[in-house]
Write a structure and sequence with these properties.
It is a single chain. The protein has about 150 residues and is α+β, with helices and mostly antiparallel strands. It has a single domain, classed as Nucleoside diphosphate kinase-like domain (Alpha-Beta Plaits). About 40% of the residues lie in helices and about 15% in strands. The chain contains 7 helices and 4 strands. It has a 4-stranded antiparallel sheet with strand order 2-3-1-4. The protein is globular. It starts with a strand and ends in a 14-residue tail after the last helix. The relative contact order is 0.25. Bound molecules: adenosine-5'-triphosphate and magnesium ion. The site of adenosine-5'-triphosphate has 10 residues, from β4. Adenosine-5'-triphosphate (ATP) binds next to β4.
């Protein structure tokens, strides 16, 4: 399992600008398989729990307000080296520092409204995938992933 899955969220700003299609196209073109997907609005409890590592940060309340402001697309993405390759595809947290051709460079509005989430480690990817998806909602292309 290690290294083969990552979790993405297409955030409310990108959804409201009709960027779901273009972002999913970039994900597909980069060779990721979509193993699970949902379209729904996060509750404040879900958003606070998902981003609990940032609860002491000055931007935490604003981040939760943003993440619950409209629907999101949550998906499990699969390929070899998924976490690192997806972080490369999305670019830096701050879109002004993101490389040309990255998802955040193309679709982010600001450091907060930065289009997409991507897991930052294999351990967090596993935690985040189970946070949103039960076994029956996951369709892995890797036989070894439970
Ligand atoms: P994500 O976890 O969403 O993939 P990231 O790992 O690149 O993003 P984190 O440091 O985990 O960045 O921050 C989580 C999210 O909090 C960011 O994606 C962004 O939406 C928001 N955020 C981060 N830093 C700031 C900031 N300085 N001001 C406002 N919002 C911020
Ligand atoms: Mg992060």
């Amino acid at each position: 399992m290690t290294g083969k899955q990552t979790l993405t969220i297409i955030k409310p700003g990108a959804v409201s600008h009709e960027y779901i299609g273009p972002i999913l196209a970039m994900i597909n073109e980069a060779g990721f398989h979509i193993a699970a997907m949902k379209y729904f609005r996060l509750t404040p409890i879900q958003a606070r729990s998902f981003y609990s590592v940032h609860k002491e940060k000055t931007f935490f309340n604003s981040l939760i307000e943003f993440m619950t402001s409209g629907p999101v697309v949550v998906a499990i993405l699969e390929k070899e080296n998924a976490v690192l390759d997806y972080r490369k595809l999305i670019g830096a947290t701050d879109p002004t520092k993101a490389e040309e051709g990255t998802i955040r460079k193309m679709f982010a509005e600001s450091i907060e409204r930065n289009a997409v989430h991507g897991s930052d480690s294999d351990a967090n990817a596993t935690r985040e995938c189970y946070f949103f998806f039960s076994r029956s909602e996951r369709f892995s292309m890797f036989d070894t992933i439970p």
